[in-house]
Amino acid sequence: MISQIVVILIVMIVAYLIGQWRHFSVELSLFFAALFGAIAGAFFSTPHWSEIFRHLVEGSFTYLDIILVFSTATIFMTILRESGGIDYIVHSSMKALSKIRPLALLVLMIIVLIPGALTGAGSVSLLVVGAPVAAALRHLGISRPRTAAILFILAGLSAAAPPVNIWAMVLCAGTAIPYVGFELPLGLPVILLGTFTIFTLGWKREKNGPDEVTLAKVEAFLGMSWWRVVLPFIVLFGLILAYRLWPFKMPVLGLPLEFFLVSIIAWLTSPKKLPFFPISRETMARLLPLIATMVVIGMLQQIMTATGVRGLLSYLVISIPIIVLFILLAVIIPVSEGILTYGAAAILGIPLIWYLDSLGYHATVAISGLSLLWPLGDGLPPTALIGRLSVMVSNFEGSYWSFLRRTWLPWIVITIVGVLMVVFSHKLSFLVRWSVG
Amino acid sequence: MIRIKIVLLIILVIILTISGFQLYHHRHYQIPIVAGPGVTRVLKLSHYLPSLKGSMADTWVFFLEGQEPGGKVLILGNTHANEPEGLLTALVIIENGQVEKGTVIIIPQFNHSASRFTRPGDGYPLFFEIPTSWGKKKFRMGNREASPLDQWPDPDVYIHYPERQLLSFLDARNVNRTWPGRPNGLPMEQVTFAAMELIRQERVDLVIDIHGAETMFPVTNCIVAPEKSAKLATMVSLTVKAMEKFDNHVEPSPPKFRGLSHREIGDYSEAMPFLLEAPIPFLDQPTGPKTERLLLDGRDPFLLRLARKKKLFVPYDETGWPMDKRVGQHLSVTLELLKQYSRRTPDRAIVIHNVPRYAEVVEHGVGYYFVNPSTVSPDKIYFN
Amino acid sequence: MFKIIMAFYYLITAFIAALIFWNFWLEKKKVDRLILYLLVLIPMILRLLRIK
């Protein structure tokens, strides 16, 4: 059986490579990998021929809710940008803060951390506050690739930050470990690493150019005012916080509906008349590569499971000797996230945590350590979800690699901290005790 | 370009029709359950919470009442519908059991919505079949969580009622995280609330929630019990080990982990809860293809290698962990819990006959105990 | 209440699906993109039909 799974894996890799060689997009190449993986599997009845379409279609649902979040959040941000609100925020806040550079950087860091911390999705941070923060960073004289690098790392950290960390929650749900005591093991490294990142990447003023451009833009929209910009955000954060504060009185609205509501508010409060449907349509056209990736990754995940490829990969990871495993975590975790996004936490994370737990490592701290490594993978191809969003919101048009290589220093520091947290999880267990109180 | 678009659309319609038909068939396939000679009453769970009526969350509740009054036990199958040993164990009792004293209440598909959904990305088969003397009995494979067709959207984080513990967003659809539930909450909170109402109104003494757990999961092949149930669970564990030669150790229910049946039922009612786990290799991550065969025989080459490296929490060899063994263990532990409880509290005794134990199920196979629905009168058949 | 919210989710899904189909129809050049639009439509259509 094992050799049959290896054959299927090879077919999937070859299908992907041929797709890339023929200059198809990453998404389409991944789809070919899933499709031909399923066909190869059908020769061994895993899955049966009659089930190929069903598996592909069922897999396409894996990230449907996340697709809806992306879609509605991006429509909201586009409306806000078109109304001139984002330029207005940047202009006003930077006028007040840019004289005290460290303070301005810290405030911007916290602005990025909050939406991701509340929702568990770095993408939400980028979609909600990415564009204005990018403009503010440029206003502080930071180049576009560096801005994208800062946003990418901070968005990743925001996803790892408490109270909501989806990797940790997936792992807790899968390992029956309570999702409690994560406040300090996650919060402390996120704040320290975030500060480190924004200071190392943003300390130096690289150029002065964009200031005037931003100012000029703002002057074009005279009707804009604070309340018009802030109202949708107040409603959004109000709804998110209200469920946290009064969970048994508030109905569960879910992020897509919350974003949809605030896009309508932003549209109604815009000082100039905006065409809602054409703007939404253009937004969806821009989002296509991202949401198609989510659909195709779901299909790929389903086919990998139905054919046994997922099990093979999971088996290989937990068969590695522990010392080698610790060293390889730095590579395995981000790469798995780059290929499978959240699916990686389930496929590799769950057996890994059981394995570490059985060896006496502290599960909560180990999960926290791994949670710092996973977001790094969101910058790696083929999916590179957060990386691509960071580039998109910072309007950086250079090569993807020239953005990614600017993240090297925080990347290495985060990796070291994450791996050390796993290795010394038992010694750090006091963080869990202090969190629980 | 128009021609290409039309061709692509036709391909889309073909794919959607083929897969859509299979998925629709799965969601609407009805499993016949035969009410055996011991069944005296059949209700819907909505009897205890009318707001569930007419929804996919509503499910059948079978009562097997004895001539003599005594204690009451509630048995839950398919709390997690991807652990079908719970359903099969419940059906063996419903179709065969005869109660002499006390009452046995059984909900074979506790998360009914989850039994009509398989999780995207996990590559499950849609159905599995159990061989019987009269042919194969076909079952739907289900999921750990309810279908989003019945509860949508998920919150970004699930906040447990009433303890406010933060749980994964998926757990809002997991009825083993929504105990004790609330009447006006999400549908799955209503399901657990209705069951709590049943437990309180019927004055249930014992609740047995039947599950399966991965071989790589430390809490497997065991009885999970809170403080109030621990003594009884320990007695049962020792007895089945001595008499029937299989392991089923006792795991304490963690007091800080909220929403689980073995925690909340004990805390919010007089009943003593027990959660039974048997190893189900199908759910492990490092396995070969997720096939019907793996689900039924539990044999997997990766797990065998991992067992040799001592990375599993249960003994594992070439024979795997077949369904018959899993159902047999659950039946024996359930019967032993009733026996030990009856011995300790004779005025609340529960005595049931004609339910097979471990050795018999392993010898004959679980299908041996299913009644052919075509041989009984239609009013004895309940479709779930 | 949750039924009303659920109904909104079907409306949002229908809205997004309609936008995607609109884009599919307007696409003039890339077959690559046409296929991706249809792949994204798959889960949305089956959810709207209450099949999955």
The structural domain count of chain A equals 1
* Number of separate domains of chain B: 1
Gyration radius over CA of chain A: 22 Å
Strand content of chain B: 15-25%
Taking the sheet with the most strands of chain A, its summary is: none
| Number of E-state strands of chain A | 0
Q: Tell me the series of helices and strands of chain A, N- to C-terminal.
A: HHHHHHHHHHHHHHHHHHHHHH
CATH T-level fold name of chain B: Aminopeptidase
Helix content of chain B: 25-40%
Overall pLDDT of chain A? 88
What's the order of the H and E elements of chain B? HEEEEHEEEEEHEEHEHEHHHEHE
The 3D shape of chain A can be described as globular
- Number of DSSP strand runs of chain B: 15
The poorly predicted ranges of chain B are none
> Which structural class best describes the helix and strand composition of chain B?
alpha/beta
Helix share, percent of chain A = over 70%
| CATH architecture tag of chain B | 3-Layer(aba) Sandwich
Distance between the termini of chain B: 49 Å
Number of helices of chain B: 9
Measured distance between first and last alpha carbons of chain A: 50 Å
- How many DSSP helices of chain A? 22
Please describe what this structure looks like:
- The complex is a heterotrimer of chains A (437), B (384) and C (52).
- With 437 residues, chain A is mainly alpha-helical.
- Chain A has helices at residues 2-21, 26-42, 52-59, 64-82, 85-97, 101-119, 122-139, 144-160, 166-175, 183-202, 210-220, 226-245, 255-269, 276-307, 309-319, 322-340, 343-358, 363-377, 385-393, 400-404, 408-423, 430-436.
- Chain A is built from 22 helices and no strands.
- Chain B has 384 residues and is of the alpha/beta class.
- In chain B, the strands form four sheets. In chain B, strands 2, 3, 4, 5, 10, 11, 12, 13 and 14 form a nine-stranded mixed beta sheet that branches. A two-stranded antiparallel sheet of chain B has the order 1-15.
- In chain B, strand 8 (158-159) and strand 9 form a beta hairpin.
- Chain B is globular and about 80 Å long.
- Chain C is an all-alpha fold and 52 residues long.
- Chain C has one domain.
- Chain C is built from two helices and no strands.
- The longest helix of chain C is centred in the first third of the chain and has 25 residues, at 2-26.
- Chains in contact: A-B, A-C, B-C.
